[in-house]
Each structure stands twice: as structure tokens, then as C-alpha cells.
Write a structure and sequence with these properties.
Number of helices: 6
Distance between the termini: 22 Å
Shape: globular
Strand content: under 5%
Structural class: mainly alpha
Number of strands: 0
């Protein structure tokens, strides 16, 4: 299911789009059978998680996403925002974050990577890609 703007609680719509494109690049497996991030609830899961955590820990995330968006201009001197770049340029931009000499920038990359991996690989439809058949015990049914 695609995340709609009214389903988002923590991130603003623009931040959600930046996050979506970051997650798409970070979890790209190259496998044809891999579900697209936008076809899962990965972004909604990340959003709900961030909304549920201590605001002191999550408050910097929207600013981090805006820095990623403008990172090509600020750090690479390219006149393009992250979301305007093709996949290869986005990968280069994220690699710059990962290998930066600036510790806070590397920490930002790792925070986004952890959220991306948690959001994507927690989706039932991604489990077959890693050979996971699902929980041994059935999930409790929701009360009617």
C-alpha cells in the first residue's frame, strides 16, 4: 500500500518524499522480485516509529532529511537537490554521507540507514527475499 500524505504523522509530506527516495536507494537489492518501497508500508512504519519515540531523539530527523535534500549543493557543489537526481547520483551522494570526514554527517547516514533497513525488511512481502517464512506463531487477531 502506498503511503498517502494523510497517513503521515511525524514527517511532513516533503520530508516523506525525501525519506522515500533515501530508503529506495538504501534498500535497492537489484532483485526483480523485490517489492518497491512505495508498494510496501515501509515509510508508514518508519513514520509511526519516529512518532512513537522520545521527541528529543527524533527531533533532528526532519532537518537531517532537508540536509540530505540539499547535500549535493552544500557538500558536492552540484546544482541539484537529492530528489532531482537519478539513482546513480543519489548513490554517490549517499556514499558521500557514509564516508564523510564530518562525524555528524556519518552519524546521520547511519541513522537513516537503520531506519531504512528496519522499515523495509519488517514488511512481510520482503521476507521471501531473505528466505524467511515468517513467525512460527500466528499474530494475534485484532479485536473486532
Amino acid at each position: 500500500a502506498v503511503v498517502t500524505p494523510d497517513a503521515v504523522r511525524f514527517f511532513a509530506p516533503r520530508e516523506t518524499e525525501i525519506l522515500t527516495q533515501v530508503v529506495e536507494r538504501m534498500v535497492d537489492t537489484g532483485e526483480a522480485a523485490a517489492p518497491a518501497v512505495r508498494e510496501t508500508r515501509a515509510i508508514a512504519r518508519i513514520d509511526a516509529l519516529c512518532a512513537s519515540l522520545d521527541p528529543a531523539a527524533t527531533a533532528p530527523l526532519p532537518a537531517l532529511l532537508r540536509l540530505v535534500e540539499w547535500g549535493p549543493l552544500l557538500f558536492e557543489r552540484r546544482f541539484a537537490r537529492f530528489t532531482q537526481q537519478d539513482a546513480a547520483a543519489q548513490d554517490t551522494s549517499l556514499a558521500g554521507w557514509m564516508r564523510s570526514n564530518i562525524a555528524v554527517r556519518r552519524m546521520g547516514f547511519h541513522a537513516l540507514r537503520n531506519l531504512a533497513l528496519l522499515g523495509y525488511w519488517s514488511q512481510d512481502e520482503t521476507w521471501p527475499l531473505v528466505g524467511y517464512a515468517g513467525p512460527l506463531l500466528q499474530r494475534p487477531r485484532a479485536a473486532p
